[in-house]
Amino acid sequence: MNEQEARMAAQTAIGKVAPDVDMADVDEDSRLRQDLELDSLDFLRLVETIDTDTGINIPERDYPAVATIKGLIAYLAAHG
Amino acid sequence: MPSLGADMEHGKLVEWLVKPGDYVRRGDLVAVVDTDKTIMDVESFQEGVVTDLLVDIGETVPVGTPLARITQTPAETAPPAHVAQVAKATAKAALSKAAAPIPTAREAVEPHPKEAASIAPPVRHLAHRLGVETVKIHGTGRDGAITRADVEQAVAAPSRNRVRSSPRARRLAAELGVELAAISGTGPQGAITEADVNRAEAPAPESPSPSTQATPKPASEEPAAGKSSDAGERVASLRRAIGALMSRSKKSIPHYYLSTTLDLRAAVDWMQSVNAERPVAARLVPSALLLKAAALAAREVPEMNGFYDDDGFRPSDSVHLGVAVALRQGGLVAPAIHDADTLPVETLMEKLRDLVSRARSGRLQRAEMADPTLTVTNLGDLGVESVYGVIYPPQVAMVGFGRVMEQPWAQNGMLGVRHAVIATLSADHRVSDGMRGARYLARIEELLQKPEEL
Question: Where is the Carrier domain (chain A) (predicted)?
Fold first, then answer.
């Protein structure tokens, strides 16, 4: 998938897991855990949502690569 | 209005899941209630036919107020009816009332073939939950009644009946004549929320004015719509409730505090290797292991697990592990995972996910809020190294886990890097002291060294 599609997929997934987060206000450098306040269960649900929506399975060892929104978008663009 | 927690004084009726004429059994969900803290399902304490709903949707009533009249058989309607009520404002009273033996009257269904036979409330609730439209199901039960099996079959059938939605959204859709299947949901797992229905309905040119008066007051909105002033009120009332309970705890319970760093190398290694072979949906998080170890250890150190009330300490035979869940809009609730010590880690993980998601979408059940025997707070998940909890009365201990992190670890004169977590214990000095508390934390650590046996 191209970067635009990856951005959409990331935003959609975050919207499902944390509907209170206003993506318009969020910087792509934001860290999912610390800045968006996703706890470990939220984060797991995010990974699961992405798997369901896009078929991209993010293994646990790649979690550090998707710690920020920017990282997540890049990861989806590279693997989708 | 049952008490849905030690600190609850009143509740607001949000939704009726039954209507007059419905036959309910003990334990069937009958209503949805909004407390200061969260929204919960309330079950019937009696068996019989609902004859009157005594509280209107949107009404706030004190704990102990009868919500509905349930008669054992329709013939008894006239004389003094049995009233499903909880008289005392304490969780204890609510529990003992719920446990009181209830005369059964299974035959009571018979005189109500027309309404009651079509679909029993528990089945309707199941259908609600699974997102099945009952009108489209062909009932195979007596007099064409829709049975549990019919509902389950409808779910299994690959039809578009299978739409996830909140009951409120479903009802709103029905009122507005909107086809649920045509709406794309923005709620959890694509569930359709009230807001989605309103959005879908909006462009339609001629239809009765949408939402507001057609639906009960939206105080209990789906979180998707949680930015309203109602959400602000909810946070404020939740803060007040937590404040009141915690001051009571700090005033009446002589807390002592312990802390220790747990070596998680074995647990994290095991979890990572297990997760690598699993689909995302079956992956574990460290919290699941920590909770299981905390529950098992509580069975062995009973002074941490139970209630302290007027009669002194009452240890509990079961471990109903309360889990402090931070709500995204602010505040927290601590519902229980029942018999957490007996659950395999995978099951516990599923329950944890289910509980957290329901806590955040406001669909907890009375028993989950009323009876934790020991609570764990895992706030450290979001950053801090350690957390010292305040005991949730009438419980006698609170376990805190900080953030799981890699840290330098010295052993046998060698320095290495390991995953570790700081575990804390806040316990009631009237029941135990540091030695027993230390024993409890040490047991947790021992258990975590053999994660495959948890």
Answer: 1-80
* Cβ contacts of A51 on chain B, cutoff 8 Å: 279-280
Q: Flag whether the pTM goes above 0.90.
A: no
Mean pLDDT of chain B, nearest integer: 77
Containing B57, the helix (H) or strand (E) segment is none
Strand ranges across the sheet with B364-365: B60-62, B10-16, B29-34, B39-43, B364-365
Which tens digits make up the pLDDT trace of B384-425?
A: 899 999 999 999 999 999 999 999 999 899 999 999 999 999
Q: If interface means Cβ-Cβ distance under 8 Å, which residues of chain A face chain B? A: 15-16, 18-20, 33-34, 37, 39-41, 44-45, 47-48, 51, 57-61
User: Which of A40, A57, A58 lies at the smallest CB-CB distance from B285?
Assistant: A40
B263 DSSP β-pair partners: B420
The tokens for A77 are: 């663009």
**Cα B305–chain centre separation:** 20
- CA B124 – CA A4 distance, rounded (Å): 43
Give the three-class secondary structure for B388: coil
CA atoms of B173 and B163, how far apart (whole Å): 12
As a whole number of angstroms, the distance between CA B249 and CA B254 comes to: 9
All structural domains of chain A, each given as residue ranges with its CATH number in brackets, are: 3-79 (1.10.1200.10)
Residue B235, number of CB atoms within 10 A of its CB: 15
Interface ipTM: 0.83
CA nearest B273 in A: which residue? A60
Q: Which two tokens mark A25? A: 């206000």
- From the candidates A11, A17, A20, A38, which should be mutated to test the interface with B, based on the most B CB atoms within 10 A? A20
Torsional sign, CA B239, B244, B247, B252: negative
Question: Is B31 a residue whose pLDDT tops 70?
Answer: yes
User: What pLDDT, in 10s, does the model give residues A30-65?
Assistant: 999 888 888 888 899 999 999 999 999 999 989 999
